[in-house]
Amino acid sequence: MKIVSVILARGGSKGIPSKNIIDLKGKPLISYTIQASQKSNVDSTWVSTDCPTIKTISETLNANVIDRPKEISGDFSKSEEALLHFSKKIDFDILVFIQPTSPLLKSEDINQGIKLLLNDNKCSSVFSVYKQHWLPKWSLDIEPLNWDVKNRPMRQEVDEEYIENGAFYITKKNDLLNSKLRYSGKKNVVIMPYLRSFQIDTLDDLNLIEGLL
User: Fold this and answer.
1) 60 near 43, Cβ under 8 Å?
2) pLDDT (tens digit, 9 = 90+) per residue, 71-107?
């Protein structure tokens, strides 16, 4: 059973230029997830990128690199396109897809997900989440979403929800190739603490995570 990870890290970024390698407390952002992967139970850690600089940094950190074609590296390219490209080039049984914008991810989180998948023959996919209590949500038209202003529920009356934190997704190769999705079939989740579930998409996120590290 060969388990590999892949970190998708294209060069383009609208919110923060060169986001995936921006300095975070003296280290490039991508280094945090590369090192979490390397400390986990995966057999090899890969980075899929279209950027020569990201490639060089990743190789310096002893990660394997696969060149991501330009046609699947645009602003509107889906992660699944790069995952399928990777899956057709690299031999593995289980894939751990890690996002480089989740620097608070730990190897223990990844190992917990791998264990969940291996211990349940019917399970096809595992992904990371955090728990959230009910909060009143509003549309941009200032309309309540799925609740009634005249009958506002108390927080404890509404079931908690799982919220994807985007840190990682684990799936079997055959399921990925057949569904063409990062998760399919029977699913399970790894619950991460809220304070380790932040992703870096803006400079505010970067400043926040710097304070948490």
Assistant:
1) no
2) 999 888 999 999 999 999 999 999 999 999 999 999 9
- Tell me whether residue 152 is one of the annotated catalytic residues: yes
What domains sit in the chain, N to C, each tagged with a CATH number? 3-128+165-212 (3.90.550.10)
The CA distance from 179 to 114, in Å, is: 20
Report the distance separating Cα 165 and Cα 198, nearest Å: 7
* Residue with token string 């919110």: 15
pLDDT category at 153 given cuts 50, 70, 90 is: confident
d(CA 27, CA 210): 11
CB atoms within 10 A of CB 208: 12
Strands 64-67 and 27-28: unpaired
CB burial string 35-46: b at 16+ within 10 A, e below: bbbeebebeebb
Helix (H, G, I), strand (E, B) or coil at 59: helix
Q: What is the DSSP string of 65-80?
A: EEEPPGGG-STT--HH
- H or E, element range at 127: strand 123-132
Catalytic residue among 10, 68, 152, 155: 152
Q: Which of 162, 163, 165, 169 is nearest to 201 (CA)?
A: 165
DSSP per position, 8-22? E--S--SSSTTGGG-
* DSSP character at residue 101: T
**In this structure, are residues 3 and 40 in contact, taking their beta carbons and an 8 Å threshold?**
no
